UniProtKB/TrEMBL annotation:
Region (Disordered): 234-260
Source taxon at top rank: Eukaryota
Name of this chain's protein: 4-hydroxy-3-methoxy-5-polyprenylbenzoate decarboxylase
Record organism: Wallemia mellicola
Subunit structure: Component of a multi-subunit COQ enzyme complex, composed of at least COQ3, COQ4, COQ5, COQ6, COQ7 and COQ9.
Gene giving rise to this polypeptide: COQ4
Main localization, broad class: mitochondrion
Record keywords: Lyase, Membrane, Metal-binding, Mitochondrion, Mitochondrion inner membrane, Ubiquinone biosynthesis, Zinc
Example of a GO cellular component annotation carried by this entry: extrinsic component of mitochondrial inner membrane
Family stated for the protein in its record: Belongs to the COQ4 family.
C-alpha cells in the first residue's frame, strides 16, 4: 500500500483506500514521475490512472455503457477477466480464427497472463471502480483487436488508440512521453508518421469498447468482430508486419507501458 494520510472514511468496497484531494494530488504527481522513470512499475501506472482520471469522464463512460444492452449487463453482472474466471484451455480448443482461440494464442506467444492487472484502490464510487477494473482487464484484448504485441512500440500504439477512444489522461501522458523510451529512430518515425495516426483513426471510429461483453464473444470470428467495431487495416501481430513497419517483437520484454 502507498502511504497516505490516515482518514476515517469508511471504504466503499473491498480494497478501497479513501484519500483526500491533496493526497490524491500527491499520489498523481508521484506516480507520474515514477512511471516515467521506471516503466516496469505497473503499480504506479495503475495509481496514476485512478488518481488522474476525472470523475466526470468515468461517469460519461458509465452512461455510455448504460446506453447499450451489453453495457447494462456488464454493469449488472460484473464479469472479471482472469485465469480464475476464464478457462484458457477451453478457449484454446475453439475453432481457428475465433476471438477466444486467438486470445489464448496471443497470451501464450507473448508470455502474458490476465492475472497481472492491479486491483482498483483510489476510485471512490464502487461502480466507477469496477469500470476502471474492466478497462484494465480488457487491455490485452485491445492489443489483440489492433494486432499489436507487447514491445514498447506496440504499447505506444495502444496508448494512442486509448487516448483517442477513451480520452484518459494517463493514456495521453504515455502517448506524449512514452516515445522517449524508443531505442531506434525508425520506431519514432514510424510512430509519428504511420502507426500513431493509424491508431488515432481507429480510436475515433471504433464502436464503444466498454460495451463489449468479451465473455460472450469468445466464439465470434475475430475478423467479424473487428468489422463490427469499425476497425480497419489491422496488422497480423504474428508476422511483424503492418503499421509497426519493421522488426519482430521481443515477447519477453515485459515493457507494458500501458497496462494500466
Amino acid at each position: 500500500m502507498i502511504p497516505t494520510i490516515s482518514r476515517l472514511t469508511k471504504p466503499a468496497y473491498p480494497g478501497h483506500w479513501p484519500v483526500g484531494k491533496l493526497e490524491n494530488l500527491f499520489l498523481a504527481a508521484g506516480s507520474a514521475i515514477v512511471s516515467l522513470v521506471d516503466v516496469y512499475r505497473h503499480d504506479m501506472l495503475a495509481t496514476l490512472t485512478e488518481t488522474s482520471t476525472p470523475t466526470m469522464l468515468l461517469q460519461q463512460m458509465r452512461q455510455g455503457m448504460l446506453s447499450s444492452d451489453n453495457g447494462r449487463r456488464i454493469l449488472a453482472e460484473r464479469p472479471r477477466i482472469s485465469t480464475k474466471s476464464v478457462d484458457l484451455d477451453a478457449l484454446r480448443d475453439l475453432p481457428k480464427g475465433t476471438l477466444g482461440r486467438e486470445y489464448s494464442l496471443w497470451l501464450e506467444r507473448c508470455g502474458v497472463t490476465p492475472d497481472t492487472r492491479d486491483p482498483v484502490h483510489y476510485i471512490d464510487d464502487e461502480e466507477l471502480a469496477y469500470i476502471v477494473q474492466r478497462y484494465r482487464e480488457s487491455h490485452d484484448l485491445y492489443h489483440l483487436l489492433l494486432g499489436q504485441r507487447v514491445d514498447i512500440l506496440s504499447e505506444l500504439i495502444i496508448k494512442w488508440f486509448e487516448f483517442s477512444h477513451f480520452k484518459l489522461p494517463v493514456a495521453g501522458l504515455s502517448s506524449a512521453f512514452g516515445p522517449l523510451r524508443l531505442r531506434h529512430s525508425w520506431q519514432r518515425q514510424d510512430l509519428f508518421t504511420r502507426s500513431g495516426p493509424w491508431a488515432i483513426r481507429q480510436g475515433n471510429r471504433c464502436a464503444p469498447l466498454m460495451g463489449i461483453y468479451w465473455e460472450n464473444e469468445w466464439s465470434t470470428n475475430l475478423a467479424e468482430l473487428r468489422q463490427r467495431m469499425n476497425l480497419t487495416d489491422v496488422p497480423d501481430w504474428r508476422d511483424g508486419k503492418g503499421p509497426q513497419g519493421k522488426g519482430k517483437a521481443k515477447f519477453d520484454s515485459g515493457l507494458e507501458i500501458g497496462g494500466a
